[in-house]
Amino acid sequence: MNETWTILQENLPQALADTAYMVVVSGVVGVALGSAIGFGLFLTGNRLFHPNRVVNGIVGFVVNAIRSLPFLIVLVVLIPVAQWLTGDPYTPTGGAISLAIAAIPFFARIAEGAFSEVDHGLLEASQATGASTWHILWGVMLPQALPSLVRGIVLTVISLIGFSAMVGAIGAGGIGDMAIQYGYNRYDTGVLVAIVVILVVLVQVIQWIGDRIAARLTH
What stretches pass through the bilayer (predicted)? Predict the structure, then answer.
């Protein structure tokens, strides 16, 4: 028990910091680029704007192809990309890059769905007033889709927390790396239990905050 406590004191703060770094960086990149791709999919698939079956089909196929693969396979494919960009994929930065690329198509479909839920009557009325596509995006679509986007962001962040544990398991740092090194390899059940409890509490807190924000935006 004393050894477990010592391990947690010495390694848990850095592991949590590495995990937070990977999740925040990949989350910001994934949400930003995923939103842009999702908006593009919505525009090219909606008759009111710029329908283009070819572009929509190609982009949709790529998004679906990446999303259909298990994350570990995506991770293995992205390791050379992270190595090319950072020089060492087995670092928190390398892990963040892999997570970000995996998060982009995931959030793209969430964003497309959120935009598709906006009342078409509002969109048609906005077009009738002569509003440009960008004015409709910022003035109508985003405010209306914001609650769904917030819920999607929460879902993405929670998924990234789980994925970050997998990234850590291959040596990129974070709580996954700590769980493997000290919990699994050293047969320290206490470390594994502590990490599982921390993950459960963290996910619950994030979900609670996200639900409250989405509820406020809905009202």
Answer: 20-42, 54-78, 90-108, 149-170, 190-210
